[in-house]
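Archive maintenance. Older records in this collection stored only the sequence; we are now back-filling the structure field for every entry so that each record is complete. The fields below show one back-filled record exactly as it appears after the update. Entries are processed alphabetically, and AraC-like DNA-binding protein is next in the queue.

ARCHIVE ENTRY
Title: AraC-like DNA-binding protein
Organism field: Neolewinella antarctica
Length field: 299
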Amino acid sequence: MEGHQRPVLQRILPTLDSSFLLKHYPDPTVRGDKVPNYHYHPELELVFVNGGNGRRHVGSHVSYFDDGELILIGSNLPHWGFTDRNTGNRAETVVQFSPNFPTPDFRALSEFSQINNLLERAKNGISFTGRTKEVEGRRLERMVELDPLGRLLLLLDVLRELSESEEYESLNADGVHIEIATHGYERFNNVQQFISDNFRRDLAVAEAASVAAMTVPAFCRYFKKVTGKTFVTYLTNFRIVYACKLLSDEHSTIAEVAFDCGFNSLSQFNRSFKKVTERTPTEYRLDLRKTVGGNLPSG
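Back-filled structure field:
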């Protein structure tokens, strides 16, 4: 099941002639090799989905888009791919760039301050709407026709326009934001796998520390440094991400969702869910019903 999978580190290899990576996917009905998966990467990601309908699953946020999508995702923010054979989109364009793009010295210029603010806000995930989505999305598509310098200049201008736009929604999806040094990926992924396999039951910090081959105090310091959260808070957010998946897709009552996600009581689940998503599970499900017109269970 999708919500039960851990985010996988995606290694993005730079090209020799560019400071960022540009990908363009044509009609997904003729591409059988593009399968969405739950992943994260240090690079920021700007995605334009040309037409179609689909789902946003970014960090702890799950919602739906209609008639395409333009979304900016921050560094190491876990997310699912946005298109597949069923999305009905005409094409998808993806731009991935380093957190220091284009260079640290360039980022330090006062003229870049507004774009710096945009990239900082991207830690939560930003979905653009209206004319911004339409115009800037089309400009991203044009990048595939340009030479490397033309692509760079156009990307910088697109980021400038996005930084000035008021047509956007902050997804508030940074609940599982990951900050980790390259050398620690294997250890952290082992802990992630342990959480993914066992989050439905009570988990003690000592068990996770054992998986990481660390003492409990050392593990707590390491985990807080890597994720910015305590183990308990991170585990709770992980469970909430899974709950969002069940609330959107499964024909289960809210009480069944709560216990299936590892919460010991419905009241504990309701409190935790509202703290992370700023909505109760019932409000979240009602909002999804309004968005997708589905037949989700009410209780």
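Update note: The chain has eleven helices and eleven strands. Residues 2-175 form a domain with the Jelly Rolls fold (CATH 2.60.120.10).
Entry marked complete.
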